[in-house]
Design a protein that fits this description.
single chain, SDR_oxidoreductase, Rossmann fold, 285 residues, binds NADP nicotinamide-adenine-dinucleotide phosphate
Length: 285
């Protein structure tokens, strides 16, 4: 049987890197794309140690660049096949809405939302021609629940959710399922180097300075509760091998119950709970 080909964006770290290794171990051909190939060393070294390097092809891809995606399309024409696309690349833009420059919102949407669309448009013709395929979009609990200080990220993931629902219905006649993976908080770089907080909210002159600082302190303190990203990588491989996958997969301790609670409660009650937690834990002067 011919090997399945999976294209992963942002494969140099976090979920992307772990998924690349897990798929390679499962005998897929992995196109491990990253915007800076020099960051691929850890993936190459680990894949070599595991004896799966021959299943991995490192490729340059900046999902915000139309030219870079065009180059990807040319490369895919040579390979002639993509069975699975994982739109994983992204970062977490933060700050308080009043202070976030529009271009920071634009870059966030260009990456987490439009970047996924750009790559999907490049890959879809190959899937339709073959009459099969699968698209997995890496969403988040932030695609279901708004958080203060994180509105660029939350907006980009809400947009990804809406687009994925539409796309799922558009591609159903072609037997190409679209899946949303919704992790809670996991230990990757996204909360350190992958987090881009607007400068203004971090200055003491900002009216949001103490809110921001205490929010950050609370989040840092809770980081130890973050899940092991391997759980997500293994789950995505399992989803890829499911015959009739669902639209949504929630992953992580407490994530399902939090989303359920938010959906069940009237907004008024939800807001009271959130603000109670914020007041007591973050906004102590
Ligand atoms: N970790 C969590 O708690 C969590 C929870 C829910 C959802 N997620 C989602 O999971 C996905 C992966 O994040 P992660 O947690 O694994 O964080 P990560 O370790 O920071 O990985 C993010 C990856 O995206 C890449 N990337 C960013 N902008 C890019 C661009 N323009 N073109 C190509 N690649 C780009 C990064 O590359 P560079 O190294 O070059 O920046 C990096 O490889 C993201 O979509 C994130 O929103 C994460």
């Amino acid at each position: 049987m011919e090997k399945q080909v999976v294209l992963i964006t942002g494969a140099n770290s976090g979920f992307g890197q772990l998924m690349a290794l897990e798929f390679a171990k499962s005998e897929y051909i992995v196109i491990a794309s990253m915007r800076d190939r020099n960051k691929g060393k850890q993936l190459i070294d680990t894949a070599t140690k595991l004896g799966v390097i021959s299943n991995i092809k490192i490729t340059s891809l900046d999902i915000t660049s139309a030219q870079s995606v065009e180059n990807l399309t040319l490369m895919l024409q040579d390979i002639g096949q993509v069975d699975l696309l994982i739109n994983n690349a992204g970062y977490a833009g933060g700050g308080f809405s009043e202070e976030i420059p529009i271009d920071e919102y634009q870059l966030q949407m260009e990456t987490n939302f439009l970047g996924a669309i750009r790559v999907t448009q490049s890959v879809l013709p190959f899937m339709r021609e073959k009459g099969s395929g699968m698209i997995i979009n890496m969403s988040s609990i932030s695609g279901k629940i708004g958080f203060p200080g994180l509105s660029p990220y939350v907006s980009s993931k809400f947009a990804l959710e809406g687009w994925s629902e539409s796309l799922r219905l558009e591609l159903a006649p072609f037997s190409i399922p679209v899946i949303l993976v919704e992790p809670g908080s996991f230990q990757t770089n996204i909360w350190t180097t992958g987090k881009k907080v607007t400068v203004k909210s971090t200055l003491s002159s900002s009216p949001y300075f103490s809110y921001m600082k205490q929010l950050d302190t609370y989040l840092q303190r809770n980081r130890i509760k973050d899940g092991d990203p391997m759980e997500v990588a293994k789950k995505v491989v399992a989803i890829a091998q499911t015959k009739h996958p669902r639209l949504r997969y929630v992953i992580g301790k407490g994530t399902r119950s939090t989303i359920l609670l938010k959906n069940m409660l009237p907004w008024k009650w939800w807001e009271k709970i959130v603000l109670f937690i914020l007041k007591s834990k973050y906004i102590k002067k």
